[in-house]
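Something for you to look into today, if you have time. What I am after is a single protein written out in full by you. I want to see for myself how the chain folds. Could you add the entry underneath, on a fresh line?
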Amino acid sequence: MKTVDSYNFAGKRALVRVDFNVPLNERFEITDDTRIKATIPTITKILNDGGSVILMSHLGRPKDGPTDKYSLKHLVTPLSVVFGRPVKFADDCIGQSAIDLAASLQSGEILLLENLRFYKEEEKGNVEFAEKLSKLGDVWVNDAFGTAHRAHASTAVIGQFFEDRICGYVMQAEIENAQRVLENSERPFTAIMGGSKVSDKILIIERLLDKVDNLIIGGGMTYTFVLAEGGKIGNSISEPDKVELAKEILIKAKEKGVNVYMPVDNLCADKFSNDAERQVVASGAIPDGWQGLDIGPETAEIFKKVIEASKTVLWNGPMGVFEFPNFAAGTNAIADSVVKATEENGAFSLIGGGDSASAVNNAGYGDRVSYVSTGGGALLEYMEGKVLPGVAALQ
């Protein structure tokens, strides 16, 4: 795989697939620019070499073609600030404006293309659409690990039209850090799995059972495991059809000598709201009409000890509904512990994208753990052992 460091971009127009699918508020202001900042090293290297950059990305899930809400034009000003130079904008990713602006691009200049998903052909992996995009640049750089699990036109199919297919720094770092955790982990290795659904994490949990010493289970998926052990969960979120699966995971973990830690208490609410009535209840004894929205304080202490004694930590998924400040304590306690393990115990910590990344960044801990993935679903699929089309296209 060719990397950015191994390539000289002098005089080249680099067509760079980035993941600028960033959250915007009602005023179209970016509320979390983690993904944009992650691409700075790749783009800077190309520009410093004397190349020019054509950025292509998707934003949101537009259903009916061009929609103002999902236009990448909202990113032009913030990108110009980030890169310290004006960013040009093509109002159609394959239209005449894109062709003309790309053709006239000078060394050191940046062009942003309109949302790729304004064309249905992008997600369908349409070859003709990919070919039209490819004509805009001389070299293809894929730095969008977050979409590497999709066989879309710009993330995978386009590769066939380029002799030079380059792996960007984000993509390279994601792969290397995931490999470090999976293949070169120091012991004890603790995986923290949160989030709402067992079904979303089943494949990665099964793979990790061959690699970890400790498996911590939190978040909404906990309650499916509680059902598997015959406990009461009140109105808590669960997947009753996955109870047998949860039982199998617990049996497999025991057979493989993996220590499984689940909540011993939960912070419960009488409704799904930040201002709900709250009470701490023993796990498996949640009364009717109440729902678990966070791990309890006793659980946080138990999890904390396990994490802080670890040498490798993988965290994917929050411990509760951390978007509600009154139910964020559990997730914040985990973030504190992961930082402590990293800084005081020399652990290697990988935060696995999505909500966990938001929790760590919101707490101001992003630079105090070893690596925060921007990959989300792509990281999970990579760790499950699946071949990612966006990675395969670079090889």
Residues 329-345 form the longest helix (17 residues). The chain has a mean pLDDT of 94. The longest strand covers residues 13-17. The CA atoms of residues 273 and 332 lie 19 Å apart.
